[in-house]
Each structure stands twice: as structure tokens, then as C-alpha cells.
Amino acid sequence: MGSVSEANLTEFFRDLLREAMRSQAVDSSEDTEFYLVKLLESFIKPDHDWLDRPLALEFLESFHSPDRLRYGKLKRVGDTTLFLSGIFMESLHRKVVGPDYYISLGRSAYEQLSGLSAELGAHVGDSFAELADRFTDYVRVLAELSLEQMFQGDATALRVYTRWLYTRGENDRRWLTRHGIIPFVPDHPRRH
After folding, report:
1. What gap in Å lies between CA 86 and CA 26, rounded to an integer?
2. pLDDT digits over 80-93, tens only?
3. Alpha carbon distance 156, 3 (integer Å)
């Protein structure tokens, strides 16, 4: 990919991300916005085996790895869980573990990365702290991007309701209400 296409791709994702952030009323630092744009770019052509290895295993192994390797493992876990939770949240309901698991795992990975970045002198530590603290906000942003730009269709109401169940976004609640759906949280969700 040449530098012109990379620049255009970066602009494309930056514009989409900013629009989704405005729609979800989420602000971020410039560094975190840039990080998210690069995250989206990285998943255009993911490694062919990017989901072959369980993310929980990567997370656990990171604690027994040298710092540089640990950094890479945690970054993979954080980035992958954020991407999956935001872009493909609905498909996670059909998995053994659901969105809550991915959100918790991703948040923990970014928390660990924040501390590790300070030790390694990496400048992205503040972005990792922001991603950890506001993980569900960024899940909402990526879900908005997915809903509005990637996977439009008849299942929009279900997608917005599912996103609302996990993030409790005010814009999602208003959207559902405008479309005649009263947001409701079941007492004890059960999986069979």
C-alpha cells in the first residue's frame, strides 16, 4: 500500500471515527483518537490467525513474559477485544463468552498496558489509561461506526438495543425510545 493510499485511509477512518464520536457524544484526546484510527486500519487486513489463539491465554501469558513481549501480548488483547466488542458485539452473543467478558478483558489489558508503558517509556500510556477508563464509551463509538457505516440493515433496532444493554449510552436510549422501544434490562439474563 503506497503512502497516498495510507494517508487517504487514515483520513477516511478519522472522519468516520469523528462522526461516530459526535453521534455518541464521546470526546477523546488527540492521541487516543489517532490510536483508534490506527487500530481500525490494522484490522483491514488482520493476520490470518488473529483469532486462532484464545485472548485470555495471551493475557495470562503476558504476566510471565519479558516486558517487550508482554507489551505486545497485552496490546493484542486490548485492541482485539475493543474491535470485537464494538464492531461485532451482536455476534459475541452466540459465543461461549459474551460481550461483558470481552469488555472486562480489554479494559484489564489496557490498564496493564498503561502501567507497563510508563515503565518502558512509551508515550501511549495516557491513551491506554483513557481506553481502560472509558472502554465502554469507545465500544459505543465503534458500534456506532459499525451500525452506520458497515452493517446497515433491518437489524438496526436489535443492534442498538444490544449496544445499549452493555454500554447504557444515552444516545442509544433516546434512539430506541424515538423508535417505540422502551429500553429494559432483564433481571437475570440466562443463557441456554
Report:
1. 14
2. 999 998 888 766 66
3. 36
